[in-house]
Every structure is written in C-alpha cells, then in structure tokens.
Amino acid sequence: MSDTTCHMSISLDGFVAGPDQSRDDPLGRRGRELHGWHLGDPRATDADRTATGWLMRPRGAYVMGRNMYGPIRGEWDEDWSGWWGPEPPYHAPVFVLTHHAHEPVELEGGTTFHFVTAGFDAAFSAARDIAGDQGVDIAGGASTVRQALAAGVVDELTLDIAPVLLGSGERIFDGSETFGFEPVEVLHSPLSTHVRYRRTGAALRQSRQDGLRNLEDAAE
Fold first, then answer.
1. What are the tens digits of pLDDT across the range 77-112?
2. pLDDT in tens, 19-38
3. Residue 173 has what pLDDT?
C-alpha cells in the first residue's frame, strides 16, 4: 500500500498527549489513558485488536518529530536511541525532524533513525522515496501530524477516540480550518471508538493541484 497513513489516539476534547510531557511521563499527565486499548487493559475487545493490527501494519518508512523520538532538547548532549529499546517496532527507516544535526542511529530489526534538519517537506520526500510501494506513516507527535495535515499528504487517518477528557495538552487539529476526510470504517469498545478516515475526492484533487503548483513554482 503506497498511501501515506497516520494513526493517533485522541481524547474527546482533542488532545493526543497530556500536559507536562517528560522523560518519566512521555505521554504527559494522564496521556496513557488514551492508549489502554492497545497497552494491555483487560477490557480490550476484538475491535481493539483489529485496530492494533491497523496501527502495527508494516510501512516502508516513517516520519516523526523530535519530541516523539525522545526528551532531549537543543544540542544532542547525551546518547539517546529512542524510547523503544534495542529493537523499535518500526523495522524500517524513520526520518526524525530536528533543528540539530545528528548521525543516523541504526538499531536491531531494520530500524534506522535519520535526522532531518531541512523541515517536514524534506523528511517526507526522503521517506516517500525510500518507502516505494510500501507507503509512509506519519508517526507523530502532534506538531508533525499538524504539518502533514497542512501539507495535504495524509491519505488515511485513523483516530482512536478514548472516552477521556484531558483538559489540556497537545492537539493535532490546531490551525486546521477544514477536515477533508470521510469515515470508511468504525469499530468500538469500552476503551475507544476507532474511526478510519480516507481523504475525500475534493481534498485529493486540491492536494494534487497544490502539488502541481509547487512544482511549477520550483521550476520558475
């Protein structure tokens, strides 16, 4: 599947992470409550297991922000290789947005983190080139997803809507004026309502027009 996907857990009030994210609490205060459906809550059902399959399906490459990769800010002043241990779940190249250059980090299972300082468009272009027919996933966090939505590159967006109110934290739709997706599949459990959206035809046409316009501008 060559589509670009994005799969995010979200609260009823629109937050994908709680406030005060830190090394000890990477999802922010109460942020883990959004993820019980795939993190071992005994109330999980077959719907949650199906959605977990959507989340974990192999992709050809990933794009993520530095906050998703780890808690270090500013210059790289310590050795860090991600939250996931020696074998991250990606098993593919991961392009990390950062303002500070860093050599690639190669880990077990085929995951290599590449650090991109030229912005989202450059990271997405590199991911798309290497992913080929296997497609790209926008892995998070909130800022990276916002950039992907603004760029119009997401073909399929899955939201796992937890029955939780966080009150504050990180949102993915701040600054968005239109949605441009329609639901194509809905599953639910006591822990989450899983909605799989596809980009509408009108949004797809607009994205293609914008892409052609960008190519024309680059050629001038």
1. 889 999 999 999 999 999 999 999 999 999 999 999
2. 999 889 999 999 999 999 99
3. 96
CB 119 within 8 A of CB 63: no
Cα separation, 201 vs 150, whole angstroms: 17
**For residue 56, what is the enclosing H or E element?**
helix 46-56
Tokens of 52: 């977990």
Quick check: pTM over 0.85? yes
- Residue 142's H or E segment, with its range, is helix 142-151
What single-letter DSSP state applies at residue 29? T
DSSP letter for 93, please: E
* Contact call for residues 1 and 134 (beta carbons, < 8 A): yes
Count Cβ neighbours within 10 Å for each residue of 61-89 and write b for 16 or more, e otherwise. bbbbbbbbbbebeeebeeeeebeeeeebe
